[in-house]
Amino acid sequence: MTKEAIKKTIVETIYEIAPEHEGEAIPEKENLQESLEIDSYDFLNLLTSLAEKLGVEVPEEDYGKVDTLEHMVDYFAERM
Question: What is the pTM of this model?
Answer without folding.
Answer: 0.93
